[in-house]
Amino acid sequence: MFAMNDLKGQVAVITGSTSGIGLALASAAAECGAAVVLNGLGDAATIEQTRSDLETRTGVRVLYHGADMTKPDKIADMVAYAHKELGRLDILVNNAGIQHVEAVENFPNDAWERIIAINLSSAFYATKAAVPIMQAQGRGRIVNVASAHGLVASPYKSAYVAAKHGVIGFTKTVALELAQQGITCNAICPGFVHTPIVDKQIDDQARTRNMSREDVMKNVILGSQPTKQFVTTEQLAGIFLYLVSDLGASANGSSYSVDGGWTAQ
To answer: What is the value of pTM for the model shown?
Structure first.
């Protein structure tokens, strides 16, 4: 009855999963028996090693599709590829994201457009492609990785905050549309996780705020989180596995904060 960790026979597509949070969620899905399609940027040899290692370690099929998250046709092709190669699609995780830190009056136009495309629009295009497959199956789980910044704001992150707030609204709408079709859509809202994207933010914030890297880490990054500790990818995997399991069937249209108390303030 409580087989939260049994995903045998299921198929998951996880965007932005060659490192960081996405790779942790892909690993969790594979360890629980789901075949996985990885997606993301990076050195081709490194990605292949990651794919091969995960497949060998878990004994499930692990594929890779290099869809550019700014290209709607490539995103649709990624979903179609998963369905064709693996026969179904049970779990879609919209995780791909980038960041740029800058005051709004100096924010580069191209950075704004790219962040909105990757952090928000890609979730729409992937979901649009996945929903008909899930409808035909009568079941599906869509998990959008938003952020604490989908619920609250911080200075110098106008595009990221706008995109992540958009992800929360998109999550609610999709959940309502599909509520009677066995398909759920929820968002996970992590606080700061020590991933490559956060490491870059530390440097960007130091530059923007004219602070040392150590001061940024203590007073800006972890200053937001009452625990003064980074969220771990294992902790995010826990809520993810609940949401994609049968136990999570009535969790729908909700945003789950995993942020050390940040948004409780």
So the answer is: 0.93
